[in-house]
Amino acid sequence: MTHHALDFSQLSPREAYKVMIGTIVPRPIAWVTTVSPDGVVNAAPYSFFNCLSADPPILALGVENKPDRAFKDTTENIRQTEVFTVNIVDHANVEAMAATAAAFPPEVDELQMAGLTAVPGVTIDCPRIAEAPVSFECRRYLGLQVSSAREIVLGTITMAHVREDIIDLETYYSDHLALDAIGRMGGNGYAYSRDCFDHASPSAEEVMARRAARAAE
Ligand SMILES: Cc1cc2nc3c(=O)[nH]c(=O)nc-3n(C[C@H](O)[C@H](O)[C@H](O)COP(=O)(O)O)c2cc1C
């Protein structure tokens, strides 16, 4: 089977976006809560999201600006307040999460709209979502304005709230079945994290032994 070579210098931003969101899957979803300087709570999902460093503990969000290049409420609030909370989305919250993606004006409390409960932050002045299985309180570490259309926000985690049936505080392992996180596919698609498998990474010696065994066949 041959591969199509897609030259990104020849693709429109929309085409590049579609190639990326259709193939870089599943993406974890950051359900980001922020507060405006006037105290209005905002929530929105972002699947251009991942953890990039554990020491220091850094999360990254990729936020697209609005078509007129104005910042989304999440970006504006993080710029103003320097804090945000990343809530993890489980399957039970998919409908509420999707409701917070609707383009409400900045004065609307999106948690209230989606029937969700705000719990005050402990280390930052920004609420988490009570219904979320896990939440990370974050301080803005760096904002990268990569273009007039996109901003990358890096945040340092100051505190995690993990539902008690998920994490074992002896080992710090989390039970992914209890977490039941969902991921984002292309279009309107989502993925479960329940159907997964273990596969240990081999040592270099094991890889070489397998290669030698194949060659000897
Ligand atoms: C599952 C999901 C993932 C999304 N991921 C992103 C993303 O990575 N970047 C982005 O700019 N918008 C993303 N969106 C769209 C935003 O959530 C949407 O524009 C939202 O209205 C922004 O809200 P805000 O203005 O309150 O920040 C996503 C929407 C959904 C439903």
Which tags fit this structure?
single chain, 217 residues, alpha+beta, Pnp Oxidase, Chain A, 7-stranded antiparallel β-sheet, 6 helices, 22% helix, 31% strand, binds flavin mononucleotide
Helicity range: 10-25%
Q: Which CATH architecture is right?
A: Roll
Largest sheet: 7 strands, antiparallel
Rg (CA only): 20 Å
- Shape descriptor: globular
Order of helices and strands: HEEEEEHEHHEEEEHEEH
Bound molecules: flavin mononucleotide
Number of helices: 6
Distance between the termini: 25 Å
CATH H level, superfamily name: Electron Transport, Fmn-binding Protein, Chain A
Low-confidence parts: none
The total count of strands amounts to 12
Name of the top-level CATH class? Mainly Beta
Strand content: 25-35%
List the domain count as a whole number. Answer: 1
Q: Quick check: average pLDDT?
A: 96
Provide the structure class: alpha+beta
CATH topology: Pnp Oxidase, Chain A
Lateral arrangement of strands in the main beta sheet: 3-2-6-9-10-5-4
Verbal overview:
This protein has 217 residues and is of the alpha+beta class. It has a single domain, classed as Pnp Oxidase, Chain A (Roll), CATH 2.30.110.10. The chain has six helices and twelve strands. It has helices at 13-23, 73-81, 94-99, 110-113, 176-179, 204-216; strands at residues 27-28, 30-35, 41-46, 49-54, 57-64, 83-88, 118-119, 128-129, 134-144, 150-162, 182-184, 190-192. The strands form three sheets. A seven-stranded antiparallel beta sheet has the order 3-2-6-9-10-5-4, covered by helices on one side. A three-stranded antiparallel beta sheet has the order 1-11-12, with no helix packed on it. A two-stranded antiparallel ribbon has the order 7-8. A hairpin with an 8-residue loop joins strand 7 and strand 8 (128-129). The two termini are 25 Å apart. The relative contact order is 0.17. The structure holds flavin mononucleotide. Flavin mononucleotide is lined by residues 29, 42, 44-48, 62-64, 72-74, 98, 101, 103, 184.
